[in-house]
Amino acid sequence: MLPKEFYPTPKELLDKITAGIDWKMIQTVLEPSAGKGDIADYIKEKYKCHTYHDSLDIDCIEIDESLRRILKGKGLRVVHDDFLTFNTFKHYDLIIMNPPFSDGAKHLLHALTCQRDNYGLICILNAETIRNPYTNERKDLVSRLRRMNAEIEYMANQFLSAERPTGVEIAVIKVFVPEEENESFIFEDLRKQSYQEKVCEDVTDLAPNDFIKAIVQKYNMETEAGIKLILEYKAMVPHMLQGLEDSSYNSPILEMKICGRQLSTNMFVREVRRKYWTVLFSSPKFTGKMTSNLASRYHSQVAELTDYDFSEYNIRTIQVEMSRNLIKGIEDCIIELFDLLSHQYTYSDELQNNIHYYNGWKTNKAWYINKKVILPYMNAFNSWNGKFDPDYQVKAQLADIEKALNYLDGGLTDGRDMELWLRHAVETGQTRKIQLKYFYVTFYKKGTCHIEFINEDLLKKLNIFGSQQKKWLPPGYGQKTYASMQPEERAVIDEFEGRSGYEKTMMKQEYFIYNPADSFPCLETKAEAG
Question: Disulfide check for 294: which of 19, 290, 302, 339 has CB 3.0–4.6 Å away?
Answer without folding.
Answer: 290
